[in-house]
Amino acid sequence: MARYNVCYHEKPMGFFYNNRNISSDEWDQTQLILVQVAGSICCCFIIMANAMIIAAVGTNRRFHFPFYYLLANLAASDFLAGIAYVYLMFNTGKISRELTVHGYFFRQGLLDTSLSASLTNLLVIALERYISIMNWKVHSNLTKRRVTLLIALVWGISLFMGAVPSLGWNCICSLDLCSTLAPIFSRSYLIFWSVSNLVLFLIMVGIYLRIYIYVTRKTVVLNAHTSRSIQRKRTPIKLIKTVMTVLGAFVICWTPGLVVLLMDGLNCEECKVLKFKRGLLLLAVLNSVMNPIIYSYRDEEMWTTIKNLMRCVCSGTRRQRSSRANIQRNSGRETNSSLKENNAEDSKVSTTEILTS
Fold first, then answer.
1. Rounded to an integer, what is the distance from CA 133 to the centroid of its chain?
2. What is the DSSP string of 45-111?
3. What is the pLDDT of residues 166-201, one digit of tens each?
4. pTM for this entry
């Protein structure tokens, strides 16, 4: 009983890894370098691509609607995920055992916050699509103020969910309750985390099934109308397909990880959850890589805007180089002209002196 009254806040993470008998979680040096190089490339793509999505929504007035604002917020969550993966890659292996408790909370908090933001964003987008489709409109009537409040609510919930373990729901004072995948997280927290996310998955799938059934019935009715009506219904359906593709990729990439977390929370010793840890992390990174590709592939206007932005960036760098070259040329010309003027003045002075003498 005395063990439950002792807290280990000052211990390094190696103490908690040893408590769970985790000895095979270290990377080989060569493997670690390869993972860091490949992962850095993927994370750079995630960060740059999602930054382009956010910039496209901000610069193109055709995207100034609730759906695209929420889509940009989803890209912002993937942007944070890219940063979290970079931080994770350079704080894993042997370094993870040397981390302090607060350092480990920060590392995992970044990942949990980005995942919570993505999931909450998808739920809000599903509700926005449900409202607009049920009224058979391309975009909902949400005002910018309400959209801003929704985005602030999404990040407030995400930050809270990422900070819950550091706020007290951990096993630092109860080592017998520690999990295997996260040695200072309580198994009860892993059960709550995985079950709540899986329930949200089911809710979103139910919403989109309801939307799909409604759109199918509405389409049958509108097929008998003019081509103008058919053209009007294509755009909302296209947006629905985009979001459903994003949701499908998210569910496929994250459901295995949530199931493994649930097994760990239930203290399934025969499941050997550590074997799946690296593969599940790869799936998570793959999901963040896929999302910006899905946005640009499913939306021609988005892809056109991104291409224009890249051209502007490239032309901007070229203009800077050309302006620098012109400045150097002009400075060289000014130097030569000043030298010529000085030589001319010197020759005039010498001629005057000769005549005077």
1. 27
2. HHHHHHHHHHHHHHH-GGG-SHHHHHHHHHHHHHHHHHHHHHHHHTT-THHHHH--HHHHHHHHHHH
3. 998 999 988 889 998 889 999 999 999 999 999 999
4. 0.81
Residue with tokens 């691509």: 49
* Cα 192 → chain centroid: 23
120's tokens: 């909450």
Find residue 186's DSSP bridge partners.
178
Instruction: Dig out the tokens for 151 from the structure.
Output: 């985005």
Spatial distance between the Cα atoms of 184 and 19, rounded to a whole number of angstroms: 10
* Sign of the Cα pseudo-torsion (182, 180, 37, 81, in order): negative
CA distance 188 to 261: 11
Q: Report the phi/psi class of residue 272: left, alpha or beta, with left for phi > 0 and alpha for psi in -120 to 50.
A: left
For 177, which DSSP code?
G
d(CA 184, CA 166): 10
The answer to whether 124 and 154 have CB atoms below 8 angstroms apart is: yes
Q: pLDDT for 15-53, tens place per residue? A: 888 888 776 556 667 777 888 888 889 999 999 999 999
CA-closest candidate to residue 67, choices 264, 249, 242: 242
CB 110 within 8 A of CB 162: yes
Inter-residue contact 289 to 45 (CB < 8 Å): yes
